[in-house]
Write the structure tokens for this entry.
Amino acid sequence: MYSTNGVLHDGITSWMKSHLARMDQTDLELHALAFENTPDDLLEEIRACGLQIHMVPSRTKPLRFAVALNKTLRAGKFDAIHINGNSSTVAIDLLATIGAGVRARIVHSHNTTGAHPIYHAILRPVATILTTDRLACGREAGRWMFGTQPYAVLPNGNDLSAYAFDPEIRERMRPRLSASPDDIVIGHVGTFNAQKNHDHMVKVFARAHAQNPRLRLALIGAGHLQEPIEQLAVELGISSRITFVGLSSEVPEFLSSFDAAVLPSLHEGLPLVVIEWQANGLNSYVSDDVTDECAITDLVSFLPLDDVDGWVHALTQVTAVDRTSASQHAREKLRSAGYDVDDGAARLRRIYLQIGDRIGLTSPVRNDHDRSER
């Protein structure tokens, strides 16, 4: 299994780690692919999930990558490959499997658009021919990647209990954000890149803060656009009201310190962060360019990006709610909707074993009702 983005501090890698760590790997031999220069700490996290890692050049050098991938697949005599990606540029990866003896080629869609829509359209016929099994994090992500081809939806599950609201943790974490008891903290978790639209977020916050000085903004994550966003905050005169947390292993704890969350993304597959925010009982304000499939509870509100006044109004109206009750109710609904990581890991295992059955590998006897939906 691997992501076409590489092993990063991002949603796909988080999904991979959480599901692989919880999966019963009996009768399965799982390996991971990572790009050269991947940080050692991330590689260790993948190894901790029970996987052996194979290093290859980055996909930014497609020919070198494809040759190395083909060589790796041949050497390992792999029966199946699971490619997590955002567009039909996975055709590069699929072409690299030719002649390598890979009998099952799983493509897993994690987004509703991509950075290269023209390449996506050109390469889709190739990807369609070479893909044997199709997965998607949601319906819209499946339609984007596969069109009218059949696919199975595998929700982006997580450890819901880890994201339960905790008032004691809230009191401990608030000072880390320089938040007073009276402050209203608006939070965001995501990579500083064009897709996440931090520029819009900070400009909206500046206007909202002018109307309600109690507002603070907390941004968790890192990326190549962080410095320009920090400079924008200075230019708007609100840098003292924004905390740039950086990368953090304490995201669940920080969520309890928030009062609301925002996701003004230009596009998403099915954003795992919105699932996490709901599990924490957070009211979340999300771009209507994001699929409404992520709204499992009524804690999520969708706003058009061009309605700046609407975003400003939403932030200025954030008030305290019974987070403990909201979190408990949301986690129950999320679990029922299939967003618990244990259920997701068990289902992914069943999918792998069913593919093994189909291509003639030895596997345990399972009940017919364990088949994944198409």
About this structure: The radius of gyration is 21 Å. The chain is about 40% helix and 15% strand. The chain has two domains: 2-156+340-370, 160-336. Residues 169 and 253 are 6 Å apart (CA to CA).
